[in-house]
């Protein structure tokens, strides 16, 4: 049966992680995978999460199945983060939420729902993007088209080309947008550009699908929701895939949420019933531990304050590394890398080409994605001078 199966290529990012683990050099550096590391290069469990786990250990009484869409208070808390505490979408009934395994699960269940219910057949995805987007769309049975996003010459958003290309989309097509901290470029639309995008999608009757994997890693929990909330102002119906992998450091707990907003409550109830079918046929019901952690933290004022503090310190450490990196590169004569300080979140498109990235790995044990994407969260005060030396060497070659 299986002898005709070809070996699949390794995931370009997770495969890099495997290669990094195998590298025996003592001073190797991982700027590949998008996982936060502290100044000691460790991906630690947040204190608020540890405390919530202690509470759960004491109080949790059952491991019986969760409801298909997860616990209702979990979805409600996710909507508060997405839309803001006072939004009509928190309790009004037009927005329904469903716990999915990670942001990936939310993207997939959303795409399955779109395909199974013939909502649309084509989804427009930014070029470049997180590579899994294309595969998720295809696996769910959707066709994808790409819209330009990155202006290489100016290290900026190719906004005019993006809108121009999306003008070719036909009514009813889906448009996938990154809410903030665009992966891989780190470049997000400005407030003015979000306004234009949101109105444009509404006028063209395109269906927004927003990937919200990094809330709190850009400018703040509320600030990072600007794009989503602007889309919500003009578009009666849309989907959001949010993730608690990064902002709670819950990567392996697979905690994410699909939220679908419908034009009216009656429609939302019908949508929910179909989303449930999509969940049932894919995973039956979600894993509980991650969502119980999130719910415990967000419902306890002390733990919530601690979470906000811990998230802030992750965000601020990354921002500090951006500034330090660009200054040190300038001082070393590597050129002008100031654009790195304008980018948001874990990632930067460094502008380094494939050969330069290869040389970083071969000659210096520094691992980054071939596209030139570096994970700024992997930089710290102990390794930054070596990174600067290495980048300077490869750009001057
Ligand atoms: N969307 C984007 C843009 C991402 O970078 C990631 C990262 O892993 C995800 C979705 C998936 O997140 P999760 O690990 O929660 O599935
Ligand atoms: O882009 C990243 O590095 C993160 C982590 O198949 C990731 O989003 C990368 C690849 C992948 C799953 C997660």
TrEMBL record:
Pfam families reported for this sequence: Aminotran_1_2
Q: Name one GO molecular function term.
A: pyridoxal phosphate binding
Q: Which parts of the sequence belong to the Aminotransferase class I/classII large domain?
A: 27-391
Q: Which cofactors must be present for this protein to function?
A: pyridoxal 5'-phosphate
Biological process terms in GO annotation? L-phenylalanine biosynthetic process from chorismate via phenylpyruvate
> Does the keyword field hold Transferase?
yes
| Family statement drawn from the similarity comment of this UniProt entry | Belongs to the class-I pyridoxal-phosphate-dependent aminotransferase family.
Instruction: Fill in the subunit field for this protein.
Output: Homodimer.
- Could you identify this protein by its name? Aromatic-amino-acid transaminase
Native species of this protein? Succinivibrio dextrinosolvens
